[in-house]
Amino acid sequence: MPELPEVETIRRNLESHIVDKQITAVDIFLPRLVKWPSADEFRARVLKKKINRLERKGKYLLLRLQGDITLIIHLRMTGQLYIAEAGHVTDRFERIRLHLDSEEVLVYSDARTLGTWYVMPDHELGRVHGLESLGPEPLSEPFTVSYLAAIFRSRTGKIKSLLLNQELIGGLGNIYADESLALAGIYPERPANSLNSDELEALHQAINTVISQALQNAGTTFRDYRNGYRQEGHNQHHLRVYGRKGQACPICGSTIVRIETAGRGTHYCPQCQH
DNA sequence: CGGTAGACTTGTAAGG
DNA sequence: CGTATACAAGTCTACC
C-alpha cells in the first residue's frame, strides 16, 4: 500500500473533516481487522469520543481521541481511508465505517483485508508492534548522511532490503525504495556496507527528493491507492523504474529490468545503476 | 543479531 | 474467455 507520501496525503485530506468531530457510531463489517482489543470492545472504547488530532508516524495513522486513547490504523497493501457523505457510499470492499457528528462518515475499504486497526490507551502504544521502533523518516532532521553511513557500515545485506526495514528508515516502501536507488544510480543488490561516501550522499539526497516529489504529486496510484477523497494520486506519471519492466529508462533509454530481491519485486536500469 | 522464506488474503493482469 | 498462473503500495513469525 501506501508508503509515507500516500499516508501523509490521506492525513492532510482528512484532518479538517474529522478533527473536533465526535464518533457517533461504528460499523465493523470485518471484525478480524481489529487486532486489539476485541471488535466489540473497540467499538465501546471509541464510541462518543471526540477526535482531537490526526497524526502520522511512518505508515501508521494515529487518531488521538478524547480520554487519552489513540485509534491506530495501518493500511498495509490495499487499505483506503476516505471521507464520504453519509448515505452516499457504495464500495464493495468497505470493511469499517466511523459515523461522525457531521453529515460525513469515515470509510475504511480494503480489498485484500490485510490492514490493521487498534485502539490503545496512550501509555500503552508500545504494544502496537512496530509503531515505537520506527527509524527516522526521510526529510526529518535526524535523517542525515551520517545516520545512513552508521546504519549501513556494519551491514552486508542488500541495500534494497535495508531501505525497506522500518526500524532503520520509517516510511519507505517498495516503490520509493526502487525509485530512490534509481535516482542515486545504485544497484539494488549491492551490499549496504559497500557504498562509498559519494554514493551515501547521493542515496540520501535521492530518498529525500523522491519522497518530496511524491508528496508534491499527492502519492502514487499504481493500482489501489486513493487519497482521503477517494481520488488517485499523480506521481505514477513520474516513476523512473517502478512497474516499468521492459520499458525504456528515461535517462539512458536502456530496458528496465525486474528481479526479485528478498521476496519483493525490484526494478532497476542495468545501464544507470551499479 | 543478521538474513531469508513463508504466511496472511484476495483481486486483477497477463498470457495461453 | 476462464484461470491450471503470476503478481501486488506490507509486515510478522519461524527458522538457520
TrEMBL record:
The keyword Ubl conjugation does not apply. Its EC number is 3.2.2.23, 4.2.99.18. Residues 240-274 form the FPG-type domain. InterPro entries: DNA_glyclase_Znf_dom_DNA_BS, FPG_cat, FPG_Glyclase, FPG_N, H2TH_FPG, Ribosomal_uS13-like_H2TH, Znf_DNA_glyclase/AP_lyase, Znf_FPG/IleRS. One of its GO terms (molecular function) is damaged DNA binding. It comes from the Bacteria. GO terms for biological process: base-excision repair. Pfam families: Fapy_DNA_glyco, H2TH, zf-FPG_IleRS. Involved in base excision repair of DNA damaged by oxidation or by mutagenic agents. Acts as DNA glycosylase that recognizes and removes damaged bases. Has a preference for oxidized purines, such as 7,8-dihydro-8-oxoguanine (8-oxoG). Has AP (apurinic/apyrimidinic) lyase activity and introduces nicks in the DNA strand. Cleaves the DNA backbone by beta-delta elimination to generate a single-strand break at the site of the removed base with both 3'- and 5'-phosphates. Monomer. This is Formamidopyrimidine-DNA glycosylase. Binds 1 zinc ion per subunit. Its cofactor is Zn(2+). NCBIfam families: fpg, PRK01103.1. Keywords: DNA damage, DNA repair, DNA-binding, Glycosidase, Hydrolase, Lyase, Metal-binding, Multifunctional enzyme, Zinc, Zinc-finger. DNA binds at residues 112, 155. The active site is at 2 (schiff-base intermediate with dna), 3 (proton donor), 59 (proton donor), 264 (proton donor). Belongs to the FPG family. Residues 2-115 form the Formamidopyrimidine-DNA glycosylase catalytic domain. It catalyses: Hydrolysis of DNA containing ring-opened 7-methylguanine residues, releasing 2,6-diamino-4-hydroxy-5-(N-methyl)formamidopyrimidine; 2'-deoxyribonucleotide-(2'-deoxyribose 5'-phosphate)-2'-deoxyribonucleotide-DNA = a 3'-end 2'-deoxyribonucleotide-(2,3-dehydro-2,3-deoxyribose 5'-phosphate)-DNA + a 5'-end 5'-phospho-2'-deoxyribonucleoside-DNA + H(+).
